[in-house]
Amino acid sequence: MDKMIDESLSQQAETVVGPSVKIQGDLNSDGNIKIEGFVTGKVKTTQSVFVMNGAHISADIIAGNSVIGGEVLGNIKVSGHLILQNTAKITGDISCQILRVEDGAQFSGKCSMSQNGNGGKKTVHEEPEIEK
Amino acid sequence: MYYYIFDQGNLPMEKFERLQTEALGYFAEFKVSGETARVTPLRSVADLVDTASQRGAKTLIACGSDDTFNLMLASLKGRDFTLGFVPFDEKSFLAKILGIENIFIGAKTIAARRIEKIDLAKISNNFFINYLEFGVTSHNLRSLGWLASVKLLSSEAKNYTIRIDDSYNLNISALGGLAINIRSASASGQKIADPTDSHLDLLVLEKLTKMQILRYREDIASGDLEKIPKTTVIKCKKITFLEPRGTPLTMLGRIIAKFPSTVELVPQRLRLIVGKNRTF
User: Rounded CA gap, B241 and A127, in Å?
Assistant: First the structure.
């Protein structure tokens, strides 16, 4: 499963937000989104969202899979895999089917997980502040 | 009925006459003859498109340069034609992407009548199929020498504001960029510049380091901005260029519009006669 996700994540992103870009509004896409800049509003795709180290997101993220390496101020709702890299800083609630947290990731909010990725109706963990 | 628009463009008269004769010969050979008209100082491409419409022509063929085709496209004004192209220019960008390498293949392609529906882009009531550029453009770079192009790429970035799909604003400090429907490296199934994917691609180039300029100068000159790190790539259907006001939007070096301007995509709108070796 991990291999499949890695392959999917390594595909060229359809939408790339460069490091000097500031987006205000709703960023919707049908493909993978890679964010290196600043986004305020909402990020939505059925595919994967990559928030790179150095990126700042003040927005809710709704996606199929997501890899977070930057700073997110908002809720993250993912129907598949959510990977928090060691540089990730998240303030908001997360909801996903499979979660991987690397050492050093910071997360403050609620975490909901479920087998079918329906927004976490089965298990809810409240985690006020985690720093691994 | 076929309506052929012959345009001398920048060709010497002698060469143009020879190419026109050659083309007419092939049209007769492949039984695709029709009405022909030549662009003159008194009869522009737009005038000839109007005439073709009045005569009830269904297929317009531009015989000349990429400019001839672009002018023909811009003159359609929403009228429904099938379009074709016969290149009189060996370096034609359109000839390459349509798979029509020369006059003979052009005539053969018209006879085979392989029609592909492709997306059409629209700016200020003018239609186009290829791409628009702003800021530091690939067209400028191609016409400059090595030193001048490095100097141009070392210039200061400008702050651009661009609205996408009426959904969000993009503020970016950049050297320049491209709004692409189709380009010479286009191919179907590619993520960028597929003219059948119902999307425009906006590529914006950020300020580069000296090493990056030296390394990617040729990619920038050929318009392959997605190969350069930090380039912003956005797929969308509508792009509104807002600021800085007055910034020119150019097509093959010719100014088409200025900021603020809106580019929209009309999906699968254009019926185009294409060759077997087309790139998309």
Answer: 44
